[in-house]
Amino acid sequence: MLADADATDALGAALAQARAQLAPMPVLHVHLHGDLGAGKSTLARALLRALGVQGAIRSPTYTLVERYPLSDGGEAWHMDLYRIGDAGELEFLGLDGGEASLWLIEWPERGQGWLPAADLRIDLAVDGSGRRAGLSASTRGGREWLAALNRVTDPQAFAADS
Asked: What keywords would UniProt list here (predicted)?
């Protein structure tokens, strides 16, 4: 349960701390699921900030992709696919992935067939005045990330499933 924006920020910080424990640093794909207003952009922004992104962290709602250098030397791509009409539109975004070490993808179902599979799936939902977050891993990298998350925080804090 994420009671407020501070709790969402804490989840982002915990994910960043857990990611830092992975060695070697794998390329990771995070699919962020949830209705409008569920907190996908808020969580992505908190994670990017905790990974050392300086300056403005813009929502990719209109640009579709925002790229950010990370303090570990990698690059994060934050994508919001809500506005695309067809997954084939992704072909024109130049998403070869060569530079990206972290993909944060909102509305990934709209890019089905063109996007890499999720290492980590995060489901967010409004729950009263707060949010609910469910995390699940589908690859070795995702499972290692969740295991590291469980080491840096209370294993039940964010409903992490491996």
From this structure: ATP-binding, Cytoplasm, Magnesium, Metal-binding, Nucleotide-binding, tRNA processing
pLDDT confidence of residue 162: 44
Q: Which long-range contacts (CB under 8 A, 24 or more apart) does 133-137 make?
A: 133/1, 133/2, 133/8, 133/11, 133/39, 133/43, 133/158, 133/159, 134/159, 134/161, 135/159, 135/160, 135/161, 136/161, 136/162, 137/161, 137/162
Does residue 152 carry a pLDDT above 80? yes
Our measurement of the distance from residue 156's CA atom to the centroid of its chain's CA atoms, rounded to an integer in Å, reads 19
For residue 106, how far is the Cα from the chain centroid? 8
Specify the pLDDT at position 137: 96
CB 104 within 8 A of CB 74: no
pTM for this predicted structure: 0.89
CATH code of the region 5-161:
3.40.50.300
DSSP annotation of 117: P
Alpha-carbon gap, residue 85 to 131, rounded angstroms? 28
Sketch the domain layout of the chain as residue ranges. Answer: 5-161
